[in-house]
Amino acid sequence: MGKRFLGLGPAVLLAVAVPGIAATLTKLQTPRGVAGAVLNPERPEADTVRDADRKPAEMLAFAGVRPGWKVLEISPGGGYFTRLLSLAVGGNGYVYTNATRASTAVEAWAKAHPNVSQQLVQPGQLGAPEPVDLVWTTQNYHDFKNNKIGDSDQAALVNTAAFAALKPGGVYLVSDHQGAAGSGATQTNTLHRIEDAAVIREVEAAGFKLEARSAILRHEADDHTQKVFETGLRGKTDQFVLKFRKPRGRR
Question: Does Membrane show up as a keyword for this record (predicted)?
Answer without folding.
Answer: no
